[in-house]
Automatic annotation (TrEMBL):
EC number: 2.1.1.77
Keywords: Cytoplasm, Methyltransferase, S-adenosyl-L-methionine, Transferase
Native organism: Paraglaciecola psychrophila 170
Listed name of the protein: Protein-L-isoaspartate O-methyltransferase
Methyltransferase listed as a keyword: yes
InterPro entries per UniProt: PCMT, SAM-dependent_MTases_sf
Domain of life: Bacteria
Family of the protein in this entry: Belongs to the methyltransferase superfamily. L-isoaspartyl/D-aspartyl protein methyltransferase family.
Pfam family, one: PCMT
Amino acid sequence: MRLTSRKGESLAQLLHKEGISSAKVLTAIAKTPRELFLPDALKHKAYQNTALPIGQGQTISQPYIVARMTELLLESDNQVQTVLEIGTGSGYQTAILAQLFTNVYSVERIKTLQFQAKRRMNQLDLHNVKMKHGDGWLGWSSKGPYDAIIVTAAAKSMPKELYQQLNDGGRLIIPVGEENQQLHCITKRGDEFETKIIEAVRFVPLVAGDII
Ligand code: SAH
């Protein structure tokens, strides 16, 4: 399968109307065949701006939020080259990141999902992604520090290990909360952290210490 999608273009146009302004992000959305990341029964909904189930009680994120989180990485003061993603899931967000950044590392706790996502990266010829089956609360310290870390599941509290794996000036994008979740954009400045609350979001929980 090639990295090109006619329907992806209409999704990009829709996201532009919803307020996504980065041309780089919109181009990546336009080129990515989202149906590849969905089970057969849901492929017909691939270009709707909604989260959808991908099995194992997990979801593929809403395209708007994938685009918004990616845009926040591009708006970072530091030029982002190396990104760590926590919660590979379907691999859709991973595929978008791989088109925009030099090196992408992604950690997933559910082996079956990780396996499927890895196959999809190969199908799309995205070879700058490394994946790991493990607990994302711990990050992936041996590959860090990272210019940015993006977490695609909601954390009850801040995962301290992730802060430590950021470069100075690096950015952590993370949904925080349980019932009421807010997307946080945290920038590391020396020993200090600057936090901006972006908007209300709805993610599956970031599960601690239970690898399956
Ligand atoms: N960006 C993904 C979102 C998947 S949902 C997509 O669009 O497809 C969030 C993912 O985080 C799930 O696959 C879930 O299994 C994973 N997850 C939850 N807790 C985790 C943890 N502690 N470590 C790694 N992955 C985790």
